[in-house]
Amino acid sequence: MSVSLQRTVQKNAKYVCLASKNCPVDKRRRNRCQYCRFQKCLSVGMVKEGTKLLTISMETTRCWAERLPGFSELQRDDQSLLIDSAFLELFVLRLAHRIAPGYCSVLVRHVAG
């Protein structure tokens, strides 16, 4: 994730383009228009919610895993693997839900039911 995107989301910043909302954003001119830079981040697939989701979800996943029966008896590497795997599955499901909410609801009900 871009540091620029992360700061924009954390500050809840709202930018305005002083030109025609199509400023060049490249290595040399990336700091000229924050609005266009932010829009480019979004257009290449970066997710605004990712900055908060990554931190909150990882801690939530860790708490969930620590309550599983037998988790504490696993080796440290296996614990980390379980936490990382669960986190990634939940993260992918959240992103999929963002793209196709109706489809993901059916999928979650099917898996849970």
TrEMBL record:
<feature type="domain" description="NR LBD">
    <location>
        <begin position="1"/>
        <end position="113"/>
    </location>
</feature>
<keyword id="KW-0862">Zinc</keyword>
<keyword id="KW-0863">Zinc-finger</keyword>
<dbReference type="GO" id="GO:0071376">
    <property type="term" value="P:cellular response to corticotropin-releasing hormone stimulus"/>
</dbReference>
<dbReference type="InterPro" id="IPR001628">
    <property type="entry name" value="Znf_hrmn_rcpt"/>
</dbReference>
<keyword id="KW-0675">Receptor</keyword>
<keyword id="KW-0539">Nucleus</keyword>
<keyword id="KW-0804">Transcription</keyword>
<keyword id="KW-0805">Transcription regulation</keyword>
<protein>
    <submittedName>
        <fullName>Nuclear receptor subfamily 4 group A member 3</fullName>
    </submittedName>
</protein>
<keyword id="KW-0479">Metal-binding</keyword>
<dbReference type="GO" id="GO:0000978">
    <property type="term" value="F:RNA polymerase II cis-regulatory region sequence-specific DNA binding"/>
</dbReference>
<keyword id="KW-0238">DNA-binding</keyword>
<dbReference type="InterPro" id="IPR013088">
    <property type="entry name" value="Znf_NHR/GATA"/>
</dbReference>
<dbReference type="Pfam" id="PF00105">
    <property type="entry name" value="zf-C4"/>
</dbReference>
<dbReference type="InterPro" id="IPR035500">
    <property type="entry name" value="NHR-like_dom_sf"/>
</dbReference>
<feature type="domain" description="Nuclear receptor">
    <location>
        <begin position="1"/>
        <end position="53"/>
    </location>
</feature>
<dbReference type="GO" id="GO:0035259">
    <property type="term" value="F:nuclear glucocorticoid receptor binding"/>
</dbReference>
<dbReference type="GO" id="GO:0005634">
    <property type="term" value="C:nucleus"/>
</dbReference>
<dbReference type="GO" id="GO:0000981">
    <property type="term" value="F:DNA-binding transcription factor activity, RNA polymerase II-specific"/>
</dbReference>
<dbReference type="GO" id="GO:0008270">
    <property type="term" value="F:zinc ion binding"/>
</dbReference>
<dbReference type="GO" id="GO:0005667">
    <property type="term" value="C:transcription regulator complex"/>
</dbReference>
<dbReference type="InterPro" id="IPR000536">
    <property type="entry name" value="Nucl_hrmn_rcpt_lig-bd"/>
</dbReference>
